Amino acid sequence: MHLTGTTINDPVNYDNQNLYIGYCVAENNPGDPTITDNHSGNGILASSVEGGIIEYCEAFNNGWDMPWDVNGPVGIWVWDCTDFIIQFCISHDNRTHPDAADGGGFDFDGGVSNSIIQYCLSYHNEGCGFGLYEFGAAKPWENNIVRYNISQDDGIINGGSVGIWRHESRGTMRNCEIYNNTFYNSNPNGPSLWVYNNWPGFNFRNNIFIYDGSLVYPGQKIETELFQGNCFWNLKGNTQIQGFSNLEEWAKATGNEIIDGLLIGLFIDPELQNPGTLNLTDPEMINLENLSGYKLKPGSPLIEKGLNLKEMFELAPGSQDIVRTSIPSGTGYDIGAIEYIHK
After folding, report:
1. Is the terminal CB of the chain with fewer CB neighbours within 10 Å at N or C?
2. Number of domains making up the chain
């Protein structure tokens, strides 16, 4: 499914307004063998849209026979869009050419602004679960939000749970709030973050990062991104972060995970019920029972340890988590995509 327009090179205008795509399944689009100069095999793709919603959709097993070996397809994504929401969707088992990029779950690509990905599930994709990319579009990539999502074992051949990339010589990329997500990656040597290059205003808060390999893809660096109030955990027990022996040393050297001189980040087992077991395919069934593996156990160190984003940073986090539990459930916010329910 692909909606596009003719104003993609226009720095101001959009061809389409008030787009709605809901309750759709995009499956088994292998790619077009006759297209040898660009990607094909996407699930759901929209561009040149002002005001749009994609919700309750599933995209899976797409992109597996694309001939192009440069950029690749994604399960659900938009570019050259503003005021766009992707929510309550599932994107899984999407693929790409073995030598190409992408093949991910979700993507805000070139020229996306003032848009939100929320309450979505991404798992077992060959590319990043959530891609934030700018190829040099006419409009700036700015002021976007990624919140209350779960990524499981994404980045099988490309990237990790989250990917950040901008063309080296063109395009504007800035300002993204990434909070209260749970990023789980048990792929061998799989990272949480694939950060090809660094851009201002990317803030990670109240997220859970669980990874088998390293926090960041080997050879890459966190530079301008800001991390505050997150939980980190390595499945092999490796405490190193970005060349530092532990979280505290990394925080002191970079200023990440420190507020008012205090270390606020955690390197600790988040004590989730049974992570890595996600296989849900029906977006209408995104609920606490079906996502129980990502619930916090009673006594989890993350309960009520989240930052109050509204009070501290004037962010409006919404009224619910991914399973529609009101937030906060207790006296404070939790870390991760699912709020602990106090009885």
Report:
1. C
2. 1
